[in-house]
Amino acid sequence: MGVLTIISLWPIGIVFMNIKSLLHSLKIVPKYAMYQLVFVLCQLQTSIINILAFNGIIACAPPFSSRARGSMLSQQLLIMEMFIISLVTRSLYRRMYDPLPSEEQDNEQNEKEALQTALVEHDV
After folding, report:
1. What are phi and psi of 105, to 5 degrees?
2. Whole-angstrom Cα distance, residue 23 to residue 100?
3. Residue 73: count of CB within 10 angstroms of its CB
4. In this predicted model, what pLDDT tens digit does every residue of 9-52 receive, in sequence order?
């Protein structure tokens, strides 16, 4: 499961690297960081707690086995973490931003990017 998460983050990272400069005015970096944080917390943290529970490091307390306590601990942590992340993400998406450039400015920017890409490809 963790391998699939890493594989799913890779293409999103590629897209992010390509649009980061274009969407800088929309504060895309913190939004992407929160997106990655949710992925890591949901997958990696749960896997680590489950491994600890299966190895018996998380002690059992009647009526719960160590696996049940590990699962309960993981879910309780995720509830609190996702609540905090939702508050932070809400503040990120509710900001007032500068208006997006007009279509003419966007076309000019696309032409500049195409020229730079052509120059880079030609230099290689």
Report:
1. -65, -35
2. 9
3. 16
4. 888 888 888 888 888 777 888 888 888 888 888 888 888 898 89
Instruction: Compute the distance between CA of residue 10 and CA of residue 109 in angstroms, rounded to an integer.
Output: 26
Bridge-partner residues for 61, per DSSP?
64
In a domain, 118, yes or no: no
Domain count, the chain: 1
How far is the C-alpha of 36 from the C-alpha of 85, rounded, in Å? 11
Contact between 9 and 36 under an 8 Å Cβ cutoff? The reply is yes
Name the DSSP class of 90: H
Structure tokens at 53: 């529970």
Q: Tell me, yes or no, if the pTM score tops 0.85.
A: no
